[in-house]
Amino acid sequence: xQNPQQWRYxxxxxxxxxxxxxxxxxxxxxxxxxxxxxxxDGSSIRVGHSHEYLEMVEGKFYAxxxxxxxxxxxxxxxxxxxxxxxxxxxxxxxxxxxxxxxxELNHWSNIAYLRWLxxxxxxxxxxxxx
Length: 130
Hints:
Layout: E1 9-12, H1 18-30, E2 45-51, E3 55-57, E4 60-62, E5 67-74, E6 79-86, H2 88-91, H3 108-119, E7 128-129
Parallel strand pairs: 6-7
Antiparallel strand pairs: 1-2, 2-5, 3-4, 5-6
């Protein structure tokens, strides 16, 4: 399985905004989960990945994209919530020749799921990805 570090995604803690917190809280409450998504109780992990580095993988060159992918992973409630998704393809809009140089690991869902797997028991089922 691929990993984000192989494709030069740096892991960081995304800064949350009041607007994203309200949206996340309301969304979680609508599906019957705790709306606070509090990290202080140990059930949620706020994590982001940014793609800021040039890379050479298996002899092929890939450009830095400045992608920014932020999510909250909550293994207890079995949920991943995205709150910032600036993908490699979105960042490359308007630069058609750039698309051929985007790394193969470039979708938020793939990166978030790989991070999910690093936090949970392999038998843990993911219930929601928002």
